[in-house]
Input
Amino acid sequence: MSAERKWFAVCTRARNEKKISERLTRNNIENYCPLNKIRRQSGDRKKAILEPLFPSYVFVRTTEEELTLLKKTEGVVNIVFWLGKPAVFPDYEILTVRRFLNDYENVKLEKTVVSMNDHVRVLTGPIMEQEGNVISVNYKTVRITLPTMGYMMAAEVEVKNVEVIPVIPTQVSESRQTLYAIK
Output
């Protein structure tokens, strides 16, 4: 086992994500509960509320050795596992979620299976210089795939703000950060 701190996800009781995040923070455990800013109509005015982007999940930066201690935290149901091991989320995916939620409101999640097509780079905007693959082109919606999490986040961007990058078949990019797809 490694003593290196990595991002893991814990499953929480329903509607307890914010409470668990606060509890972990009080216990000096680095964590991140992605909150989506939603505008709701309340009578004659609009009200902004913060809802967890991933229901029943909080991300925790810790070592594998400390994971078992997290299960003892009140409200934590379990650790998220992938292929029999605790699921590790790369730093860049957590950073991408943070940036995306800072720049956009009313973010929607869609479960996705990604098929690879044209490789593109975003030319302008908050996700400028990010590279990814086009799933489809239809109007102005950017679809960003977070491979480890298996979700897409959608936001508005103009199609003219991307350029196609020729892909060399022998090039394998393990360091590719986040896949961006245009729909």
Q: What stands out?
A: Confidence is low (pLDDT under 50) at residues 112-116, 170-183. The domain at 108-182 is CATH 2.30.30 (SH3 type barrels.).
